[in-house]
């Protein structure tokens, strides 16, 4: 909404086909009290526990509000762990502190093993074809599951005999069917990364404190007011933002207006040293600015000279063959000879 | 991204127009490429929604699936796709020329030349984007293990006759597209990105509309403005003016237009099934075909802009003269095509789901060779690419100042002339570093000997090379085989031709470290068709 009010709406949204397919698949996996899901889990992560039977517990987790549901989930987890059997928690609610304020998370399912281990289950509708799935999608699912594991660990810390498994179960459709298949994903690395990022996040109160008095992000305000409000929060735009953030098009426009080189990609910054703006780099390359002793400036000037020389020689070659593209194509061998003569 | 490419991108930002990254075209384009613009259903694996196919930009063939979750309709689509694609492929399969190939005689181990057929040209497929290439692979995978009624009369839900064959061909094309420099299956975005640098990131360059907006902005607008319009511009119904190049569709299109149209179609179909007499059925059949036409026209509307853009991109590329060594890589593509044609006609089974260890290692090795070869050939074909290598110290241009004869100290002395060069470049030369130049299209090798003079005021150095080969068999070098004083020559530190690595063992000799020989379980490992279930959505 904010992005639309700013005049840079982000093209996000989910197709109802994908939505329906995802829901239908999840319902199929969890049908019959999660029998199929527990079977898949037991096959891959069962360990020495007895196989889950039809008596696996599926506690009711409904309660009022996210706090209520989170409390209900914690209680159900404690009871299931104490009972020492298999239990499937369908859409539990977990709380995690992010930047000083609580965030509520809803994993697809959490399974309690008879030995007190808790396993996060992620049900995704992208296919696993010949036992391998799109790496980017699996990575995203692993990062998501790692957050759930972190949130579960907080509950497990106050539950006797409980332990959160660092292996999560990813359930996907097999090949081109809607039959479920599963794969175990180790999320220790993602968990460590997320934990570190969470501790490093600036607390929301600190960000709010740094804002000028009276700043508001109410989409009903005029675009100018919003513009200044949004620009009072610093953002480090990179092209990767476009895939994830609704404000990315706004940030990109700002970043481009400032002439920041990061609009071309994060890696660009690495090879340009201290030069951070497009105009600055081009001036340095053209020899108008910059210290020639600086290795970046020297490399840029050399790159510019080599590029200009190559383009000139190619233009000269093309001028020699004025009969058009067809004639040039016929003369290709000579041209190549000239290029490396 | 190298510094010289980054510079080109920054120049593009500054000028508002894409800047050239190449002065010649580095990929072969055939006279009649088959363009395929596919669309897929969101959330489903390989459930195609429709496609535009054809070799004539004025007459694309529209294929559409009214209800992508219906198995029969999907099979009908795939059968139609096979009818559109296979004749194009087969038209090239019978036009052959004689060629020779080195083969090792299994009995004697001697290398012999064998007369074989080589297709004189190969069919080329062009898709809009890299996701399109992945989709071709996925389609191939979904089709090649299907059984037709002829293969196995017992099979449930038999596939139409030519569908498994199309699956094998698409798999081959998808696999070949992973070889660097191959041109059998190309994505328009990859082609354009190879030849132009835009003022946006490589992520944004995957959007065909935005990419073309930078290269060829309509009506004198700046590239950035035109690209933004292509990315976000919507009409009054909230539909993108430049629909995504597929195979994924825009969610707004799915939700607002396609889903209601499919629902209407489903209702019309139910009504037809429930019709009690012939007269009512006639009327409802009319409704059904109206609903189907509606879906076809919706799909056509979102695919046609992409179709036109692919052809526009091809036009832009054809303005560049083809690099001379692109033909050599195309010959390899023709060999690849011919080899697969032979495998199909000799009745070999479809490509396995997973390659065995030896095949996988061979594929990797050949792709590495192809990558190195591609980099070398592009640099030799194109001064602009060479400039990038010169900047990296992997090539240099130098003027010949002196040629001095010298000989080896063996019984029959061979010429090893010393050439002195003047250059202001700083290639990474060490003692006896090999450098190469192109002599009549063949590489001539030289060794670095020493610096004859340290950098002077202009930063120029004199360096001495010893020429090692391509001077003929005589005591004196063959005429024209030596550089002449005053000549300006490009030398490279990388080899021009790539040798393949060491030979890999036969599959029967696979070492235990790699799973051992296929052995006795080979029969049980034969590929079975994917299981099908009655309510199977795909």
Please describe what this structure looks like.
The complex is a heterodimer of chains A (341) and B (538). Chain A is an alpha/beta fold and 341 residues long. Chain A folds into 2 domains: 185 residues, Lambda Exonuclease, Chain A, CATH 3.90.320; 56 residues. In chain A, 50% of the residues lie in helices and 12% in strands. Chain A has 14 helices and 8 strands. In chain A, helix 5 links the parallel strand 5 and strand 6. In chain A, helix 5 packs across helix 6. Chain B is an alpha+beta fold and 538 residues long. In chain B, 39% of the residues lie in helices and 17% in strands. The longest helix of chain B is centred in the middle third of the chain and has 41 residues. Chains A and B meet through helix 2, helix 10, helix 11, helix 12 and helix 13 of A and helix 1, helix 3, helix 7, helix 8 and helix 12 of B.
Kindly state the number of beta strands of chain A.
8
The chain pair with the largest interface is: A-B, 70 and 76 residues
Oligomeric state of the chains present here? heterodimer
Please, what is the average pLDDT of chain A?
A: 82
Order of helices and strands of chain B: HEEEEHEEEHHEHEHHHHHHHEEEEEE
Overall tally of domains of chain A? 2
Helix content range of chain A: 40-55%
Report the helical percentage of chain B: 25-40%
Q: Architecture of the largest domain in chain A, according to CATH?
A: Alpha-Beta Complex
General shape of chain A: elongated
Tally of helical runs of chain A: 14
N- to C-terminal distance of chain B: 41 Å
Give the strand tally of chain B.
Answer: 15
Largest sheet of chain A: 6 strands, mixed
What descriptors fit this protein?
heterodimer, A: 341 residues, alpha/beta, Lambda Exonuclease, Chain A, six-stranded mixed beta sheet, elongated, B: 538 residues, alpha+beta, 2 domains, six-stranded antiparallel beta sheet, 15 strands
């Amino acid at each position: 909404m904010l992005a639309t009010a700013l005049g840079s709406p982000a093209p996000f949204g989910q197709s109802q086909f994908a939505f329906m397919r995802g829901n239908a698949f999840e319902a199929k996996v969890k049908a019959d009290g999660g029998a199929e899901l527990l079977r898949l889990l037991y096959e891959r992560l069962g360990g020495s526990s007895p196989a889950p039977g039809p008596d696996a517990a599926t506690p009711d987790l409904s309660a009022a509000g996210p706090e209520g549901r989170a409390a209900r989930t914690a209680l159900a987890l404690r009871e299931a762990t104490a009972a020492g059997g298999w239990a499937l928690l369908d859409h539990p609610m977990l709380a995690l502190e992010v930047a000083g304020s609580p965030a509520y998370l809803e994993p697809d399912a959490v399974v309690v093993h008879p030995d007190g281990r808790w396993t996060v289950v992620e049900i995704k509708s992208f296919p696993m074809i010949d036992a391998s799935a799109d790496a980017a999608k699996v990575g995203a699912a692993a990062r998501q599951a790692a957050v759930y594991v972190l949130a579960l660990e907080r509950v497990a810390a106050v539950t006797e005999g409980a332990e959160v498994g660092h292996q999560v179960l990813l359930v996907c459709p097999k090949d081109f069917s809607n039959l479920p298949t599963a794969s175990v994903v180790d999320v220790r690395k993602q968990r460590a990364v997320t934990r570190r990022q969470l501790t490093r996040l600036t607390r929301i109160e600190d960000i709010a404190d740094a804002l000028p008095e009276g700043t508001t992000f109410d989409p009903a305000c005029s675009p100018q007011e919003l513009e200044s409000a949004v620009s009072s929060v610093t953002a480090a735009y990179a092209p990767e933002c476009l895939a994830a953030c609704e404000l990315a098009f706004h940030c990109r426009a700002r970043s481009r207006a400032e002439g920041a080189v990061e609009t071309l990609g994060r890696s660009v910054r690495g090879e340009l040293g201290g030069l951070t703006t497009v105009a600055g780099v081009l001036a340095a390359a053209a020899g108008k600015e910059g210290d020639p002793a600086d290795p970046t400036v020297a490399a840029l000037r050399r790159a510019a000279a080599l590029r200009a020389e190559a383009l000139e020689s190619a233009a000269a070659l093309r001028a020699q063959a004025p009969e058009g593209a067809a004639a040039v194509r016929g003369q290709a061998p000579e041209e190549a000879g000239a290029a490396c003569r | 991204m190298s510094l010289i490419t980054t510079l080109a991108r920054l120049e593009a930002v500054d000028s508002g127009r894409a800047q050239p990254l190449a002065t010649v075209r580095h990929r072969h384009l055939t006279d009649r490429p088959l363009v395929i613009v596919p669309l897929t259903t969101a959330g489903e694996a390989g459930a195609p929604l429709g496609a535009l196919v054809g070799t004539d930009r004025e007459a694309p063939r529209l294929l559409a699936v009214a209800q992508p979750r219906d198995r029969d309709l999907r099979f009908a689509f795939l059968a139609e796709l096979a009818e559109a694609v296979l004749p194009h492929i087969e038209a090239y399969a019978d036009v052959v020329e004689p060629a020779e190939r080195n083969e090792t005689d299994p009995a004697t181990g001697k290398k012999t030349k064998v007369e074989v057929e080589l297709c004189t040209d190969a069919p080329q497929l062009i898709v809009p984007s890299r996701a399109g290439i992945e989709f071709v692979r996925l389609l191939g995978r979904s089709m090649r293990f299907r059984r037709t009624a002829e293969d196995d009369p017992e099979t449930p839900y038999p596939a139409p006759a030519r569908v498994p064959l199309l699956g094998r061909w698409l798999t081959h094309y998808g696999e070949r597209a992973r070889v660097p420099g191959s041109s059998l299956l190309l994505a328009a975005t990859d082609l354009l990105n190879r030849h132009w640098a835009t003022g946006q990131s490589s992520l944004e360059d995957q959007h065909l509309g935005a990419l073309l907006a930078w290269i060829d902005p309509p009506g004198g607008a700046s590239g950035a403005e035109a690209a933004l319009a292509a990315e976000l511009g919507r009409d009054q119904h909230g539909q993108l003016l430049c629909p995504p190049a597929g195979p994924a569709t825009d969610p707004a299109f799915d939700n607002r237009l396609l889903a209601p149209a499919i629902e209407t179609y489903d209702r019309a179909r139910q009504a037809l099934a429930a019709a009690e007499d012939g007269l009512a059925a006639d009327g409802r059949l009319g409704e059904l075909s109206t609903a189907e036409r509606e879906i076809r026209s919706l799909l056509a509307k979102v695919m046609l802009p992409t179709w036109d853009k692919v052809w526009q991109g091809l036009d832009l590329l054809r303005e560049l003269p083809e690099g001379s060594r692109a033909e050599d890589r195309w010959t390899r593509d023709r060999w690849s095509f011919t080899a697969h044609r032979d495998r199909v006609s000799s009745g070999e089974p479809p490509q396995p789901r997973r390659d065995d260890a030896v095949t996988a290692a061979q594929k990797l090795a050949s792709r590495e060779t192809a990558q190195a070869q591609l980099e070398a050939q592009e640099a030799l074909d194109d001064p602009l690419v060479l400039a990038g290598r010169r900047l990296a110290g992997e090539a240099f241009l130098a003027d010949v100042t002196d040629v001095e004869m010298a000989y080896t100290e063996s019984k029959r002395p061979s010429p090893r002339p010393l050439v002195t060069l003047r250059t202001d470049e700083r290639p990474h030369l060490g003692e006896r570093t090999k450098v190469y130049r192109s002599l009549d299209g063949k590489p001539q090798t030289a060794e670095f000997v020493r610096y004859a003079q340290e950098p002077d005021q202009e930063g120029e150095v004199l360096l001495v090379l010893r020429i090692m080969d391509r001077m003929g068999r005589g005591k004196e070098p063959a005429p024209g085989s030596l550089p002449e004083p005053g000549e300006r020559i490009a030398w490279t530190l990388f080899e021009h031709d790539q040798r393949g690595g060491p030979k890999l063992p036969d599959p029967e000799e696979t070492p235990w470290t790699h799973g051992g020989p296929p052995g006795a379980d080979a029969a049980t490992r034969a590929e079975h068709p994917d299981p099908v279930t009655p309510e199977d959505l795909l």
